[in-house]
Amino acid sequence: MGVVEFEDVFVKYETYTGSVLALRGITFSLGEGETILVVGPSGSGKTTLLRVILGLVQPMHGTVRVFGMEPRDGKTGLEIRRRIGYLTQEGKMIPELTVWENIIFYAKGRGRKVDENRVRELARELNVEAVLNKHPNQLSGGELKRAELLMVLSDEPELLLLDEPTSMLDAENSKVVIDLLSTFKGSVPMIVTSHDPRLVEVSNRILEVTGGVVRKPEGTAPLSLKD
Ligand code: ADP
Ligand code: ADP
């Protein structure tokens, strides 16, 4: 049994102007210790796919299992979300708290513990040790992105969902992030969405999504990372 299993998943959004089929028959499974890189143009359904795993969006058709559970009712969704580290594109730090306070607050809200030494070690590896006592709005875009990643990793999640982890980062800091994610490869299962071809390094498989459909069956086909 995979950590994440999708079977013929369809997602429809209703909007003022009509409905959008964001996912159209997605089937895949993520095994223990595996990393899947999800690529595809903007609007192809990558973020939606992550939100379905988190139970934030309900499919109109198909089956989803995460840790063997269906993220359907509120309680299961919560249980699933507290075991997942989700890096969003927009970030989720609270401006009134420092980075360090955010990390503690985040873990507490999830009913999880933080190992201070481990967080300091991760902060060093991500090159954000110097900003732990600053507020999010005092950081550069790149520092904030790495601080957000630190927060998401800080309570040792069982599954990582990372939405564009290297966007906003220059080449040097992208490398910092990719090197760190490489150390998680094989131990923590991950789904990473990205346009960054360097992330291929940390992935076992590539899922190419176009218009809500997996365009090529996983993995072996040559990569297309056009936006
Ligand atoms: P990204 O593409 O960076 O992952 P989002 O997931 O926020 O960004 O949005 C992707 C696309 O979905 C964008 O084109 C955005 O305009 C559209 N979108 C997001 N939220 C809504 C919404 N509530 N209603 C209509 N369209 C939306
Ligand atoms: P990606 O992450 O690949 O950019 P998304 O999953 O954000 O793609 O979006 C997939 C499709 O669903 C797009 O057509 C987008 O406009 C639409 N969409 C995304 N979020 C919403 C939303 N909250 N309401 C309505 N439409 C949305």
Describe the structure.
With 227 residues, the protein is an alpha/beta fold. It contains six helices and nine strands; from the N terminus they run βββαβαβαααβαβββ. It has helices at residues 46-53, 74-83, 99-109, 116-125, 141-154, 171-184; strands at residues 4-15, 18-30, 35-39, 61-66, 84-87, 159-163, 190-193, 205-210, 213-216. The strands form two sheets. The protein has a six-stranded mixed beta sheet with strand order 5-6-7-3-8-9, sandwiched between helices. The longest helix is centred in the middle third of the chain and has 14 residues, at 141-154. The radius of gyration is 17 Å and the shape is globular. The protein starts with a strand and ends in an 11-residue tail after the last strand. The relative contact order is 0.20. Residues 218-227 have low confidence and may be disordered. The structure holds adenosine-5'-diphosphate (2 copies). One adenosine-5'-diphosphate (ADP) is lined by residues 15, 42-43, 47, 89.
Short description:
By secondary structure, the chain is of the alpha/beta class.
Q: Which strand order do you get reading across the main beta sheet?
A: 5-6-7-3-8-9
List the helices and strands in order: EEEHEHEHHHEHEEE
Helix-strand makeup class: alpha/beta
Annotation, overall tally of beta strands: 9
Distance between the termini: 33 Å
Mind summarizing the main beta sheet? 6 strands, mixed
Which percent range fits the helix content?
Answer: 25-40%
Number of H- or I-type helical stretches: 6
Shape: globular
Mean pLDDT: 92
Q: List unreliable stretches of 5+ residues.
A: 218-227
